[in-house]
Write a structure and sequence with these properties.
about 140 residues; mainly alpha; 8 helices; about 80% helix
């Protein structure tokens, strides 16, 4: 859920920018900050989000980040002014920056726990789906 949500959140609003521009009676350079604000805050806080996930638990931080992201998504959906929309999108970036490293850390931990398995052994499918079957097969052949 998270990786797809964050990936699409960078680009999904590109098609809506002309409508946002006309709705809030603004110019394109101001409206572009709807995307840029999210991307900038996301990029600034992603390392901090990873460190917090390591310190306080990935699962806990994933749910906190998801809550922040969802709450400010709702605020952005009903934003009465462009300023509220920009603020909500920026705070969505904070939620995304907390979610992304937490879910990637959980995925990595799952793959690492399956690391001793090779294709063809019981329960090898979980790790193979996350990491890629061809890569796992090559690693097992080299052992």
């Amino acid at each position: 859920m998270d990786v797809g949500t964050n990936r699409s959140d960078f680009t999904a609003l590109s098609v809506a920018l002309p409508k946002i521009e006309s709705e809030f009676d603004s110019d394109v350079s101001t409206v572009q900050w709807v995307i840029n604000g999210y991307a900038l805050i996301f990029g600034v806080f992603i390392v901090t989000g990873g460190r917090l996930a390591d310190m306080f638990g990935r699962r806990r931080l994933f749910f906190i980040g998801t809550g922040i992201f969802a709450a400010f998504s709702a605020v952005a959906a009903v934003a009465p002014t462009l300023g509220v929309l920009l603020g909500a999108r920026s705070l969505m970036g904070v939620g995304g920056a907390i979610m992304w490293p937490a879910v990637l850390g959980m995925d990595h931990a799952q793959v690492a726990s399956d690391d001793h398995r090779c294709p063809g052994t019981p329960d090898a499918g979980r790790g193979a789906r996350l990491q890629g079957a061809a890569h796992r097969r090559e690693r097992c052949r080299l052992r």
